[in-house]
Design brief:
13% of the residues lie in helices and 29% in strands. With 93 residues, it is an alpha+beta fold. The chain has one domain: Phosphatidylinositol 3-kinase Catalytic Subunit, Chain A, domain 1 (Ubiquitin-like (UB roll)), CATH 3.10.20. The chain is globular. It holds the Pfam family Rad60-SLD.
Length: 93
């Protein structure tokens, strides 16, 4: 049985803040957010910085669409994870 550095045998608590990378085709923006912060705040900040409308883009984490009410905890995100941003496309031809 192994113990951690403080000898208690407990696993360390996860960090309160996460560094999340948000990337589209041309840009990478890094955000530091709390685990229980709604991702809507991050999504709006990214769109404001890039001059995009939130209704015109989609945020994906590991291929799944991110909802505004999601938090890093609900998505089980880790420090250094990436959100991908894609232009919304309806239909196709």
């Amino acid at each position: 049985m192994s113990e951690d550095a403080n000898g208690s045998g407990e696993t360390p608590a996860p960090a309160e803040h996460l560094n999340i990378k948000v990337t589209d085709n041309n840009n990478e923006v890094f955000f530091k957010i709390k685990r229980n912060t709604r991702l809507e705040k991050l999504m709006r900040a990214f769109c404001d910085r890039q001059g995009k409308k939130m209704e015109s883009v989609r945020f994906l984490f590991e291929g799944a669409r991110v909802q505004t009410e999601d938090t890093p905890d609900t998505l089980e995100m880790q420090d250094g994870d990436t959100l991908e941003v894609h232009q919304e496309q309806i239909g196709g031809r």
